[in-house]
Model the fold of this input.
Amino acid sequence: METKDFIESGILEAYLLGFTAEDEKEYVQNRILTDQQITDYVLDLETDIRLYFDQHTIPPPPEIREIIQLRTTKRDIQKKKHVFEQKSAEEPKKKDEYLEIEVNDTYIKVHKFWRPAFIAVFILSKIFLIAGLYYYFKTTSLEQENEKLKLEIQNIK
Amino acid sequence: MNELERMNNGVDLHPVTKVAPLTPLEVYDKFGAMAYGIILQIVPQPHLAQEILVNVFASPQLQACNSYPFTFAVCVIKLARAKAVEAKKKLMAIGTDDVENTLENLDLSPQRIFDLSFRQGFTPDEVAQKLKISKSEVLKALHDFFKSYRNS
Done:
């Protein structure tokens, strides 16, 4: 069909207003994509259709906007939840790698390997304390015995 | 034809200026009054028309208009008409059918044919059958309707 005949056939008007069948749609889309004259006509026709329906605008009640907002928000939340569930099912390893925690206490946290080190230091300190005391008392008693022996020697002389 | 090509053609249409996909509320703010007008033309009951209007703008099909190759307005017009016709057909199945009576008046003017196709929800084949004319004459009448509107 010639371009002029195609434009005047009215199929483009039917296509833009949604009156065409599926097979007709494909044919019209191909003609629009391949023929610049048809493309230009479609652009003009779209403007005409828009202007025609702009004449018949009626403002809807204000509460309709709120209802639409509520419905779309609810749908978005459901969609996000669905996406989140899908992600968590797909990536369980990644989730294990990073553990986000919020610390809200006054304790210092150290690595668990420090625990035996602290115990060893505690036990060694006790051993050294006992050893220190033992040698202190031993030295003191030896000094006293030494003094005693010195006095005895002097008495014998 | 995509949005960039439109821009190159120097045509100032809505999708050209659009960067991110429009949200349903943004679309509603732009085209809500137009869609409500269309729905009321097809379904004159305000309460039902408002329900259809909500269905149009809360519908996931509206997001498809973001990838629609033509203007957003035409996509919304199509969607509003489709939803309204669907609701009207449900009503007609329940209530009385007054279409047959109106078709007794065999007015073949482009205005009448546009009214039957757009507002009454008949396909071009059905209109041709009811008015006893060919489908190509129905389509030609749609062309003549917008041609006469453009020239008026």
